């Protein structure tokens, strides 16, 4: 790269200066049909997005280029690396594609800017879990870092989370799911109905949980609570004593040889299950689908205690302004307009705006993925591979059945540092 002389401002600076006004207008959603300056310059814009591999999908970047004209550069990292980079390298990204528990750590540091919900065209169609914590007015708010608790800040320049919805959001929600245990029905040899089944001595040396502390601790809590060995005030915000109790149970089980492995990546979980090394473990929905796509029986098992849920969204870096900020809003509005939502739903995740996603899915797909109905034709992956045959019913049933049975969300506790150090001791034991 050549060095710039003072008389050669960067392309970024030029774009910001020349197009600030047009960009602000376009991003406001007030203009349909972009102003000329937008049309000329938008192809020069590159937005750098980073996040976990779950939603940093090449197909999305390709579709952005096709539909909006600018370039989206994606970097996928594991959850802990995402949290660290968001805070320590804020100039290295424009869009943060992060989970809400990560947002709880990141947003108060001031590296991201609140987003104006008036610029989000489908804001009023976002699933209410992200607005008030409830799927239906009768729903009970689940424990842990529920997205709505870190979803809004008090004002335009605020870093303080708001107790109720405001005009300013931290993340625009995009993706979420209700997670449970994956099992190999051909190898477990009995019905699985509880989180505690992972501790059955019959499965000694053939179980696994994931090794991302903020997520793994919630799986551990679901297991300990189901076993009746730890009683929590709030699983999502444990005391030091509760953390100690939980990790003693897990450490004792580890020393007794209950666990085969502790996985960190999607691929690791797929390989453990597909090989039969593990017969019951923490899993993500698409990982179960990936095992099935190899012709191997694998079930995402609903459990009587409910699901551990997670959710993520798109946030904007503090430094973004002008045309690039307008492009970021345009991208986020596009993200909620249906194509991506349908793509995510077809992977077994859920989209934040269901109405628009439905428009991009066949009645058969919508019935299978969202309504718990038997498939009337083969169910295909986003890449066109057969995932399920005619007559199949989704594990756990409908959207409302699954998201209505969430017991806790992935969490950041007040004692987070203590928990992480104790978790690392458990993994090293």
Descriptive report:
This protein has 429 residues and is an alpha/beta fold. The radius of gyration is 22 Å and the shape is globular. Strand 1, helix 3 (58-68) and strand 2 (71-76) form a beta-alpha-beta unit. Helix 1 crosses helix 12 and helix 8 crosses helix 9. The protein folds into two domains: 12-178 and 310-358, Periplasmic binding protein-like II (D-Maltodextrin-Binding Protein, domain 2, 3-Layer(aba) Sandwich); 181-305 and 398-428, Periplasmic binding protein-like II (D-Maltodextrin-Binding Protein, domain 2), CATH 3.40.190. The longest helix is centred in the first third of the chain and has 17 residues, at 11-27. The chain is built from 17 helices and 18 strands. It has helices at 11-27, 36-41, 58-68, 79-88, 100-106, 129-132, 185-188, 213-227, 240-255, 266-275, 285-292, 322-335, 339-345, 354-358, 363-371, 399-403, 416-428, and strands at residues 46-51, 71-76, 95-99, 112-113, 115-116, 152-153, 168-169, 172-179, 181-183, 207-210, 259-263, 280-282, 299-301, 307-317, 350-351, 379-380, 386-388, 406-409. The strands form four sheets. Strands 1, 2, 3, 4, 8, 14, 15 and 18 form an eight-stranded mixed β-sheet that branches. Strands 11-10-12-9-13 form a five-stranded mixed β-sheet, sandwiched between helices. A three-stranded antiparallel β-sheet has the order 5-7-6, with no helix packed on it.
């Amino acid at each position: 790269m050549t060095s710039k002389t003072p008389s050669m401002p960067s392309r970024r600076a030029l774009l910001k200066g020349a197009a600030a006004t047009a960009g602000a207008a376009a991003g406001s959603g007030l203009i349909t049909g972009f102003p000329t300056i937008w049309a000329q310059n938008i192809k020069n814009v590159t937005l750098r997005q980073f996040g976990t591999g779950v939603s940093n999908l090449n197909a999305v970047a390709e579709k952005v280029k096709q539909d909006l004209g600018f370039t989206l550069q994606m970097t996928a990292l594991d959850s802990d690396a995402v949290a660290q980079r968001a805070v320590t390298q804020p100039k290295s990204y424009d869009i943060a594609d992060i989970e809400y528990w990560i947002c709880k750590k990141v947003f108060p540091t001031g590296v991201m800017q609140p987003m104006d919900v008036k610029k989000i065209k489908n804001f009023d169609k976002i699933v209410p879990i992200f607005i008030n914590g409830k799927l239906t007015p009768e729903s009970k708010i689940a424990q842990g870092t529920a997205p709505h608790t870190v979803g809004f800040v008090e004002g335009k320049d605020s870093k303080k989370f708001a107790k109720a919805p405001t005009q300013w959001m931290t993340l625009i929600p995009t993706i979420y799911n209700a997670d449970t245990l994956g099992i190999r029905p051909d190898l477990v040899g009995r019905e699985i109905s509880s989180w505690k089944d992972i501790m059955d001595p019959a499965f000694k040396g053939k179980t696994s949980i994931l090794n991302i502390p903020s997520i793994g601790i919630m799986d551990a809590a679901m297991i300990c609570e189901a076993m009746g060995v730890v009683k929590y005030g709030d699983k999502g915000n444990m005391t030091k004593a509760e953390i100690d109790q939980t990790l003693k149970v897990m450490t004792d089980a580890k020393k007794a040889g209950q666990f085969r492995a502790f996985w960190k990546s999607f691929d690791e979980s797929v390989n453990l299950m597909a090989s039969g090394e593990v017969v019951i473990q923490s899993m993500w929905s698409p990982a179960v689908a990936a095992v099935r796509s190899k012709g191997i029986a694998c079930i995402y098992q609903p459990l009587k205690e409910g699901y551990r849920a997670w959710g993520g969204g798109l946030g904007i870096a503090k430094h973004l302004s002008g045309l690039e900020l307008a492009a970021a809003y345009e991208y986020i509005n596009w993200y909620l307009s249906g194509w991506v939502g349908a793509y995510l739903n077809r992977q077994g995740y859920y989209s934040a705006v269901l109405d628009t996603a439905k428009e991009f899915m066949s009645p058969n797909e919508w019935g299978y993925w969202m309504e718990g109905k038997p498939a009337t034709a083969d169910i295909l992956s986003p890449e066109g591979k057969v995932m399920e045959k005619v007559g199949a019913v989704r594990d756990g049933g409908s959207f409302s059945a699954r998201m209505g049975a969430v017991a806790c969300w992935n969490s950041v506790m007040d004692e987070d540092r203590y928990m992480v150090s104790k978790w690392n001791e458990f993994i090293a034991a």
